[in-house]
């Protein structure tokens, strides 16, 4: 009886641990997907914007409007990332985490996610 209780406890603990691990991995995969989607939307929309054919700014992968500043010749498009807040400091190049802003200006990314993309 004691052995069965120990086995049930181990199986239950293992199941809970696996469920937690799977949930964390799923959230990370979803956020990576949102970053990729945001970068693709920014690039596509910017091409149309440069040619004076752009519609109103689209939304990023988290469903928030992209922030656009400038005109067709000199512009910056920003997604405020998962948290929706502007970064205090811009990192020229790869930035860590899902909360980091994604910035596209004048035909190239200025700041992009360094999350295995």
What integer is the average pLDDT?
Answer: 87
What portion of residues belong to β-strands?
15-25%
Radius of gyration: 21 Å
Give helix % range.
Answer: 40-55%
Q: How would you describe the shape? A: elongated
Number of helices: 1
- Class computed from helices, strands and strand pairing: alpha+beta
Strand order of the largest sheet: 1-2-4-5-3
One letter per element, helices H and strands E, the order comes to HEEEEE
The biggest beta sheet is recorded as: 5 strands, mixed
What is the number of beta strands?
5
Low-pLDDT residue spans:
none
- Terminal residue distance: 51 Å
Q: What number of domains?
A: 1
Q: What's the quaternary structure here?
A: single chain
Explain what you see.
With about 120 residues, the chain is α+β, with helices and mostly antiparallel strands. It has one domain. It has one helix and five strands; from the N terminus they run H-E-E-E-E-E. The protein is about 40% helix and about 20% strand. It has a five-stranded mixed beta sheet with strand order 1-2-4-5-3, with helices on one face. Strand 4 and strand 5 form a beta hairpin.
